[in-house]
Design a protein that fits this description.
Immunoglobulin-like, elongated, mainly beta, 11-stranded mixed β-sheet, 5-stranded antiparallel β-sheet
């Protein structure tokens, strides 16, 4: 064989291999959402227009886009029980459509890793309807999962002497509260009225050794669903801890006194929790801190409230199926 065709054949082979190597495998986008845990990426019915007696497959796609692992993830359908029918027998469904999706890890954008993504399906026959009718069936996918919110609220606590010499004299204003949260559907935020708040501690010779200062924060439902923990609408549970110089404590908070750690429970906040069942619903909590005046006499200090909240959270997405018995 002549040398030129051999060379051309080798070059073509190299080009083909190079082209294959250069094609990176398709990967999912790393999706990070500050105000959600799990999201329903898609919920669809196939086909979405059918004759009575046909089968329909419902496909649900769920992704963790938040900041922590979701556990005890369950998915089920609303609007099928007692109406849609089993494939084999044709009898109306009398069993729960719930399916366990296990746990789902969050995205890790530092390493370009998307959060866990899971798909589940249900296939049923249409409801029975009278001849000559057309009917639109509404079916909703609902996902329940367990999630956590951790966060910190940092508030400046400044002795009056330091405030006058280091702030007032120089025309400066102390910074307001600083707050951090995990990416999650329930967040700890500061009421607008407290945006510039800082604690002033009387450090004069006649001041009380321990002083009592108010602090406010709020729990806000910022996600695309609602918490429903232990059968209570809007419920979240967990702990708030106060830390800072001089070992501060809560003098009073949610009915608990003289403690550095306060438990959040459904009984402690009561009916106010129902507000978290609505979008942007919020519950404002007022507490009183007990501070040592000596700890803030000569400097600019900070008091930190640490939050660790747990809850069950629901998200939903609807779909419609057009059913016809005409013909």
């Amino acid at each position: 064989m002549p040398r030129l065709p051999i060379i051309l054949t080798l070059l073509l082979a190299v080009a083909v291999v190079a082209g294959c190597v250069g094609q990176a495998p398709a990967t999912r986008e790393v999706k990070v959402v500050a105000n959600d845990g799990l999201q329903i990426s898609s919920f669809a019915a196939e086909p979405s227009s059918v004759d009575v007696g046909d089968s329909v497959t419902f496909m649900l796609e769920v992704e963790n886009v938040g900041g922590i692992k979701a556990t005890d993830v369950f998915a089920h359908l609303l609007g099928v029980e007692g109406q849609w029918r089993q494939l084999t027998s044709g009898n109306p469904l009398v069993t729960d459509s719930s399916k366990s999706l296990g746990s789902m890890t969050p995205p890790n954008p530092t390493f370009n890793e998307p959060g866990d993504f899971k798909v589940t399906t249900w296939t049923y026959k249409t409801p029975a309807i009278a001849p000559g009718l057309q009917y639109t069936a509404d079916v909703t996918a609902e996902v329940l999962y367990r999630y956590n919110t951790t966060g910190a609220l940092v508030i400046k606590a400044i002795g009056e002497t330091f405030l006058k010499t280091e702030y007032v004299r120089t025309g400066r204003t102390p910074a307001g509260p600083a707050i951090t949260n995990t990416n999650a559907p329930v967040k700890i935020l500061v009421p607008d009225t407290q945006a510039s708040y800082y604690i002033r501690v009387d450090d004069s010779d006649t001041a009380d050794a321990y002083q009592y200062k108010p602090v406010q924060f709020k729990l806000v439902n910022v996600g695309s669903g609602f918490p429903f923990t232990g059968g209570v609408a809007g419920a979240v549970i967990g702990k708030i801890s106060v830390r800072g110089p001089g070992n501060p404590v809560f003098s009073e908070c949610l009915g608990q006194t003289n403690t550095a750690d306060v438990t959040i429970s459904t009984s402690g906040i009561g009916a106010d929790l129902a507000r978290l069942r609505t979008a942007q619903g919020a519950v404002t909590i007022s507490c009183v801190l007990k501070l040592s005046a000596a700890a803030f006499a000569v400097t600019d200090e900070q008091v930190r409230l640490d939050f660790n909240l747990g809850y069950d959270y629901y998200i939903q997405k609807p779909v419609q199926v057009a059913i016809s018995s005409i013909g």
